[in-house]
Amino acid sequence: MQFVRSLFLWVVPQKNVACPSVGEFYCSMRLGGCWEAVGPAGDMFKSLSRDIQELLADWEAPEDGIVGWSIYMIGPTQRSARPTLLIYGQSTVSRKSVRNLIEASKILQHYPRVGLDDCCHAPDRSHVLPLE
Known about the structure:
Blueprint: E1 2-3, E2 9-12, E3 17-20, E4 22-29, E5 32-37, H1 39-56, E6 68-75, E7 82-88, H2 92-105, E8 115-119
Parallel strand pairs: 7-8
Antiparallel strand pairs: 1-2, 2-3, 4-5, 5-6, 6-7
């Protein structure tokens, strides 16, 4: 997949069609705004999430090692936002451990232009929805 600098668009090369990937605004972060990842970015996360689950299956979390991850569109503007895998949890040590494991595994090489970052809580924590 590749990105184009068009408002709300992320091009899927196989289909050569522009699809919306920037959804609801969640919050401002140090890297800019944070939006829900929808469309092809959200679909791509399903595959990426499975890869991360497999990678972390044998990870020994510290006692305070509760971490989560999700994909968000992050950037200075909606136009320049890109998919970013965000690791979140209260423990800096645990977040950095997971982040280092993901970087060392080279998983993200299969997902070009997907960023990686971490923070203490999920940007959409005020938008939690019940499981269906």
